[in-house]
Input
Amino acid sequence: MRKYIYGIILLFVVFEYFFNEDSSDNRNDNEKNVKKIEEIVFHPQPENGFSPYNSYFGRGIYDKSTYNSFVIKNSNSTDAVVLLVDAYSDRKVRNEYVRKGETFSMTSVPNGTYFLRWISGNYWSPDVFIGNLKGGFQRDLSASQSNDINDWMRADGGVEWTITLYSVSDGNMETESIDLNTFGN
Output
């Protein structure tokens, strides 16, 4: 009698496995839609002022005679790579890594009018691609910019701008989230 019951159970399981196409199709569709979580590959955290995108944008542009500086305070819980962008030509004048909770000064900035664009995240990797740029964050990735004309920053000799990267209600700079492909363009 036991063999008979085990045989019926086995037959039922085999029948369900091979002939229930709807559930196997649904299972396969769901597996296709689930994004696999990749393991974090640990790399040394870059120092403040590291310029990861020099090969894309060129070396930073400096003019020691201007005494202009941009002080970037990163109060976020994520590291950031900040682009200083010429507002008229869209040229990337600097690209600087700023660790979370730290401050970095971009000194000797040429005279001009600028806005900021930045990516933030955790676990920097030189092997991650952000759009066409090689090097990026593996977790908590976001991109933002402050290119509204009212937020442009004019540097015309001896000017120091201080920018804090964090959300402030009723702050004096408007930021917008941007697509990761827009970050490097």
Remarks:
- Strands lie at 68-74, 79-86, 92-98, 103-109, 112-130, 133-145, 153-155, 160-165, 176-177.
- Residues 2-33 form one domain.
- The longest strand covers residues 112-130.
